[in-house]
Amino acid sequence: MKKIALYFLLFLLMQSTFAQSNLSWQGYFSYNEIKDLSVSSSAIYAASENALFSRNSSTNTIKTTNTIDGLSGQTISALYHSSQFNKSIIGYENGLLIVINEADGTMLNVVDIINKQLPASLKRVNHFMEYQGIVYVSCDFGIVQFNLATMLFGDTYFIGDNGTEIIVSQTTIFNGYIYAATNNGVRRATITNKNLNDFAQWQQVVAGNWTGIATFGTELMAVNSSGNIHRYNAASNVFSPLFSLSQVVLDIRATDSYLIATTATAVFVYNQQLVLVRQVNSSQIPVSGITFSAATSIGDVLYLGTQKNGLFTAAITATVFENITPMGPLQNNIFSLQATTSSLWAVYGDYTVDYNPYPLDNYGISKYSETGWLNIPYEAVLGAKSISRVTINPNNEKEVYMSSFFSGLLKVVNNVPSFLYNQTNSGLETLTFAGANYYDVRINGAAFDKSGKLWVTNSRVKNGLKVLGTTGQWQSYAMDNILDVSENNSFGRMVIDQNGTKWMATNKDGVIGFNENGSVFKKITFGTDTGNLPVSDVRAVAVDNKNQLWIGTIKGLRVLSSVGSFQTDNQLKTNAIIILEDNLAQELLYEQFITDIAVDGANNKWIGTADSGVFMVSSNGQKTNYHFTISNSPLPSNAINDIDINSATGEVFIATAKGLVSFKGVATGAKEDLTQAYVYPNPVRPDYQGTVKIAGLINKANVKITDIEGNLVYETTSEGGTIEWDTTAFGKYKVASGVYMIFISAQDGVETKVKKVMIIR
Fold first, then answer.
1. Does the pLDDT of residue 7 top 50, yes or no?
2. Region of 500 on the Ramachandran plot (φ > 0 left; ψ -120 to 50 alpha; else beta)
3. How far apart are CA 325 and CA 305, in angstroms?
4. Are 552 and 569 spatial neighbours (Cβ–Cβ below 8 Å)?
5. CB 99 within 8 A of CB 108
6. Percentage helix, strand, coil, to 5, in the chain?
7. How far is CA 331 from each of CA 9, 303, 307, 375, 495, rounded to the nearest angstrom?
8. pLDDT, tens digit, 9 for 90 and up, residues 361-377
9. Which tens digit of pLDDT belongs to each residue from 640-688?
10. CA 759 – CA 685 distance, rounded (Å)
């Protein structure tokens, strides 16, 4: 109860301004894809795809920073920490800079590079180099000055021939010159020259494609695109080859004691005499598939960044490496997820918009619970590729099924993959038209019915609907009579309603409904007389608390008014939701590519889209309560892959193409009784602009609110575990200050509850 009280106190505080930017969000990011590293005397700073973390080398404490804290969801390409100013500066592929003041955590977004009149493809930030309070920003068009004291940009240097754009990978200061490694030679100019924005002031020292340059003590070192490390001879003004590495050098940097060069499979550490004192090969780290991305050191401690496995560290003479990456999912692009009251499962396998799983994904699966993240690698999932859906047994949360859109159905028991159902050991079928010896078992949408049977869809075969009985027996249902061409059909999501009807999304035949009571199939598809969908390609289906079927297509939204019509109507028909906007009648989510629909405990609909973020609409769709995008919320991407809701806490999990976040919603699932009913906020203070929530309800509970004299001001029936009151008398006017009585009763009147709320105007 203490946790619940603290949670809702937090919610009340966050909601006081009722601004989307201040709502309660949580981030669940992956920090495994290391993009760049930076150091201070006491900490290592690491940039992953779109988040940061740092680790204090003395206390080992880790701090994370992501979009919840104000970072952009765009892809990071460079990182630098200034010890002098105690600021970290992050550069992005699109040219954005974000400066973090480490003293207080405040952030400044700097968009000068984004706003430059240059092609978007040339705005990538590649490297930061600080000299006398000025950071020289290497970009794909040239060099830009940024003043860390004033937080303002200075001059821009276009140093290519005749002042053209040129890719600058890295800069350094050596003997009074600024040197730049570019794709058209190493170029230099006197650092004190006041006219460095004049390309004529820059001299080409050597031609060719150069990817890195660093000052190491009294030496100037540079690396070309062939992987050869060169040393500069000041007397002759030439770069001479010193080391020839077998691969392209991805990163070269100098620390106080070492020159460190990183390739995909090895990290080379040279001392001040340029003697190789340590070579770390990827095979020395006992994790499969290690690919290095960057490396650095603090004193004699090495830090090795990888492309998929996070950050490792060890003393320079040690042979055992420690992974110090913050806990998180395997990667940010979570394709699908499912939440229970105590855990969250996530998978990464995907398919294209045309349901093509190739190239096949070799990813593992992840589980989040109160103990943190459990990541199960690909090597443990019995060869299951392109895992696209998660289905948890509601009667046994320790039994989870993973749909693979290539390999079949993976069963996970007690967090351990235990069995892979495929064409050889179950009723599942492989594609038949691809040849007798070709195996491709495309399982996607799945759901448990009330009796505990697991229903799954098997794409592009005649018997496209399968069911796994509680005794382990499989049964198939032919669908070639209901589908136009069953071998061309791909299934999306599936949901089962209270009548046991299975509703299946397809890409060519709209929604297929099936009930085994009579083995009846019915179709809702494109066309006024055949279902009234805007198109036949359906991506989302959800049954709400009023037994309506919400259907998301690639061209908009439709609603079947009652799933019970499956038993009575020969042809099921859906309707668009018409809303008034600027006094004009419009169709809700017209032409939107809808990727998912989730229903919360108050019967609100959370609707994900392919490129427009998340919409949260009211029970009937007439009001859009929230529209979250990257511009007004911590969403890292507007491309929404999946949404699911923890029915106990109301937390809404949103999987995007660039990370998982959650909105700590307030609409909980229906309870079995009214013992946990509560009201919040209470009291309602004058500055509060939100609604009063009455939660912990049973479904279809009758709620009446009266003033202290017994005058009725509001009445409704719950459609889940939560209802909201806007503190008006039936929407006409705001009620006055005072104590209001809340009478709650079950539909049959057997169970009742009385609560109070104080309103202060």
1. no
2. left
3. 10
4. no
5. yes
6. 5, 45, 50
7. 32, 21, 11, 10, 27
8. 999 999 999 999 999 99
9. 999 999 988 889 999 999 999 999 866 777 788 898 888 988 999 998 8
10. 7
